[in-house]
Design goal:
This protein is mostly helical. The protein contains seven helices and no strands.
């Protein structure tokens, strides 16, 4: 086995819902970037449009917390999906729908992640394994 930084990162990534947390954080970052767009599409809610900046910031924080504290992933993913859906009203229609979809998919991936589960084997591989253990058919 190799013990380089790449192997260490793979071990770290395998013990957490990596893609869910990453997509949720990227969705929040994308929405924050669309807030700086020069288009006048932003619906401001609250004083100075605070909710337009608060919800994507919460999305980024939930994504990072999923990555670094995976034991609380259910709570963070629920908060992440609620804030993702809330950005539809507060932040350029959810970052022109891209950030909203990234956040929703990331939250769902984090919610559905199960630790200590054996990797699933494909249907074709199971058939091939069954055929090889059964032996050749005699006609």
């Amino acid at each position: 086995m190799t013990s380089g930084p790449r192997a260490a990162f793979r071990r770290w990534r395998a013990n957490r819902p990596f893609w869910g947390g990453l997509l949720l954080a990227l969705g929040g970052a994308e929405i924050l970037l669309t807030e700086k767009a020069s288009l006048k599409v932003v619906m401001h809610i609250g004083m100075q449009g605070v909710a337009g900046y608060l919800l994507p910031t919460v999305m980024v924080l939930c994504g990072l917390l999923i990555l670094f504290n995976p034991t609380q992933r259910l709570f963070y993913s629920l908060i992440g999906i609620l804030t993702s859906l809330g950005t539809w009203l507060t932040s350029n229609l959810g970052g022109f729908l891209i950030g909203l979809l990234l956040g929703a998919v990331g939250s769902c991936l984090a919610f559905g992640w199960l630790p200590d589960q054996e990797p699933r084997r494909g249907v074709l591989r199971r058939r091939r394994d069954r055929a090889s253990t059964a032996g050749p058919a005699v006609s």
